[in-house]
UniProtKB/TrEMBL annotation:
Belongs to the thiolase-like superfamily. Thiolase family. It comes from Tetrapyrgos nigripes. Keywords: Acyltransferase, Transferase. This is 3-ketoacyl-CoA thiolase. GO terms for biological process: fatty acid beta-oxidation; phenylacetate catabolic process. GO terms for cellular component: peroxisome.
């Protein structure tokens, strides 16, 4: 039913995964910009090169990395025109020298995770020692284009399915797997409620999202918090929303139970443990492995059901061994079905809300999930993170990471 590719040089078993070795691929910095609501939010007028330039600049200031020691950069992004050119330009303008190469990767909603994967694999192979993985998208300025194929390709039923809007796939999952509107709204409310609680904690104690957001300044405007999270969401307000795709399936997808459309950028700095210790870098996490799978395009949203167990099997873990799961909430239809089929307790999944509340800038999400998950593990002094997402056209991906940062409680 699906094809799968796996990371190489994968440790097996909890002891091997938690062990510390000189050639481990570690993460020394993991931050993101605030997220802006598409078309209406704080980042709506800023193209991806400006977002990257701002985050590169702040990262170099914060980390004190000598940019000449960066071996490579990989940027995950989906729809901006000429993504390699603008990414290269943004890096150069931020003070990264011309000797540092850059590449881009587009696997739609997993693009950010693929950038981390690409850099990690390059380090594992010995070709790279220090790299930066980026996930970025401006859905305000670069919305999803309508895919076009030739007549011969379009005749194939599954080829035609993979070209359809993602909202259509949400309705196909809801209809085929009998995910009711009430259940979708139930899971959406969890996301909205958790994100609002996280914002409340942020406002009172400078915690939660402040741990993962690196404030940026663009054109004199300094942005420090997300503007995507909607206060006051209730079961009643969700139930009162009209379907956004009334002509498809059961017409159960709404603006309240689907991921928000947004803008933002996130990055991780990766190197070997040996190099991090040599350079005096703080180690915040460890890359373990990833999986990529394919499913029927019509039901693309169910792919975490296959990506997560495959990766657990490859690394020799049980689902109970994972402390925090960040599973992308593309739509509540697919998210609810995945959660219930996987049998993972909701208290372990998206503890501060997911894309339904926070938003889903396509290229950013795979990187943001790692930034968010590592920050949560640090707060809880827990060890293992699993990220996963469905991918447009019928794919899915997952990644496992180890937390190596400890939360220090201030002494009174």
């Amino acid at each position: 039913m699906f094809r799968r590719t796996m990371s190489t040089k994968v440790p097996r078993g909890l002891s091997a995964i938690l062990s510390k070795n000189p050639d481990d691929v570690v993460i020394t910095f993991a931050k993101r910009t605030p997220i802006g609501r598409a078309k209406k939010g704080q980042l709506k007028d800023y193209p991806v090169d400006e977002l990257m330039h701002a985050l590169f600049t702040e990262t170099l200031k914060r980390t004190k990395i000598d940019p000449a020691k960066i071996d490579d950069i990989c940027v995950g992004t989906c729809h901006p025109p000429s993504p390699l050119y603008v990414s290269r330009a943004a890096a150069l303008a931020a003070g990264i020298p011309h000797t540092v190469p850059i590449s881009t990767v587009n696997r739609l909603c997993s693009s950010g995770l693929m950038s981390i994967r690409n850099v990690a694999h390059a380090i594992q192979s010995g070709e790279t020692t220090l790299g930066i993985a980026v996930g970025v998208d401006s859905m305000s300025l670069n919305p999803r284009p309508t895919p076009e194929v030739c007549e011969e390709v379009g005749k194939h039923p599954q080829a035609d399915d993979c070209l359809q809007p993602m909202g259509w796939t949400s309705e196909m999952v809801a209809e085929h797997y009998k995910v009711s509107r009430a259940k979708q709204d139930e899971y959406a409310l969890i996301s909205h409620t958790r994100a609002n609680q996280a914002c409340l904690v942020f406002a009172l104690t400078a915690g939660v999202f402040a741990d993962e957001i690196l404030p940026i300044t663009i054109r004199g405007n300094t942005m420090t918090t997300d503007d995507t999270i909607r206060p006051g969401v209730t079961a009643e307000s969700l139930a009162g929303l009209k379907p956004v795709f009334p002509k498809w399936g059961d017409a159960s997808t709404t603006a309240g139970n689907a991921s928000g459309v947004g803008d933002g950028c996130a990055l991780c700095v990766l190197t070997t443990r040996e190099n991090a210790e040599k350079e005096g870098m703080e180690i915040v996490g460890k890359w373990v492995a990833s999986s990529v799978v394919g499913v029927e395009p019509r039901y693309m949203g169910i792919s975490p059901i296959y990506a997560i167990p495959k990766l657990l099997d490859t690394v020799g873990l049980q689902k109970e061994d994972i402390d925090v799961y960040e599973i992308n909430e593309a739509f509540a239809s697919q998210f609810a079905y995945c959660v219930e089929q996987l049998g993972i307790p909701m208290e372990k999944i998206n503890p501060n809300g997911g894309a339904i509340a926070i938003s889903h800038p396509l290229g950013m999400t795979g990187t943001r999930q790692v930034v968010t998950g590592l920050a949560e593990l640090k707060r809880k002094n827990k060890k293992l993170l699993m990220t996963s997402m469905c991918i447009g056209s019928g794919m899915g991906a997952a990644g496992i990471f180890v937390n190596e940062a400890r939360h220090e409680i201030p002494k009174l």
